[in-house]
Write a structure and sequence with these properties.
alpha/beta; 4-stranded parallel sheet; 14 strands
Length: 402
Amino acid sequence: MIRSLIVAASRCLCIAAGLIGSANLGSAWALDVNVGVIRVDYPVLAPVSRFDRKPDNLGFAGASLGNQDNETTGSFLGHSFSFETRSTTPEKLEADTADLLENDIKMIVVLGHGNDVLKVADAAGAGALIFNAAAPEVTLRSESCRSNLLHVAPSRAMLTDALAQFLVWKKWKRWLLISGSNPDDQRLAEAYRRSARKFGTEIVEERIFEDTGGSRRSDSGHVLVQRQIPVFTQETEDHDVVLAVDESDVFALYLPFHAWTPRPVAGSGGLRPVSFHAAHEAWGATQFQRRFEKQNGRYVRPEDYNVWVAFRVIGEAVSRSSSDDIAVLRDYILSDAFELAAFKGQKVTFRPWNGQLRQPVLLTDSKITVSVSPQEGFLHHRSPLDSLGIDEPESACSAFAN
């Protein structure tokens, strides 16, 4: 009897010691992860549609939801997640970046133009990891790539390829391309020309809609448009679809129903390629949408989604690698082991040759998800997702070379 009590007591002591050891081990592995979000605000005219007015918490709302999701999963491992935001201007960008770095924040999500994203990446250096959540410039993923810069926002080439695949699937292969006159419009036009060559379509004619400046909204706006657009689109070559190329938000929304020839409109107006939109409900997206709307009192925008994805990439990498070391996280994110569920029907991963997130692209008319690219039949030896955008043999990025 006494011997049995001694054995039982010994077992209890062993179990207690094991629990204490596990607790100490969990404490040793517990990580405090703080992420920075920088949004660069630029002076712009009011959008054509008041529905497109940018909310004050654009992007930051996605950060808040992403941090909550990271906290939920991280709590089981003893990890904690927090974030700091900076709403800045191009003139104050370097100071705000330095402030985050001085606060020992080594992972920063950036919403800004391409040149400003590069400023943050260069200022941060190899000891930090920067996530591009807005800039579409192909050069950021090619000759101007940085080893510490990852892209959750799709590139212009990915967006134009996504739309081009759908137009090819529809057999709408003759395009009338109408582009704006601003530099970003012309860069987008070049991306569409590349997609046309890539998928064997024909741009039968190109026209440029000059941006004359001034307000884009007025009491008589629709009256003027109803007179101007039909005249502007008269006497064109025969075409299947009008391709609106208007990153500056000047004219594309006016093209549907106003063009001289009755044809569908796609691109910057009509059917648009986007990373995400508020009407998307497939693959569990409804619960994401509802949580976002309950928290923010508005619909999600692509910038919010992109920032949310960046946060979830960080959370997944920290949880899987049990590390907050930048080199370890970067290697894991770019490895074949990394994958993330993103409400797009399949897991998303990163291209190890330029740091671009592989992801499906939604095609929307702003009311429903019309389709999702890559389209059926567009194959790739590695992944159908790599049929969108610049492929590895075309890439001029050397910063990711092993």
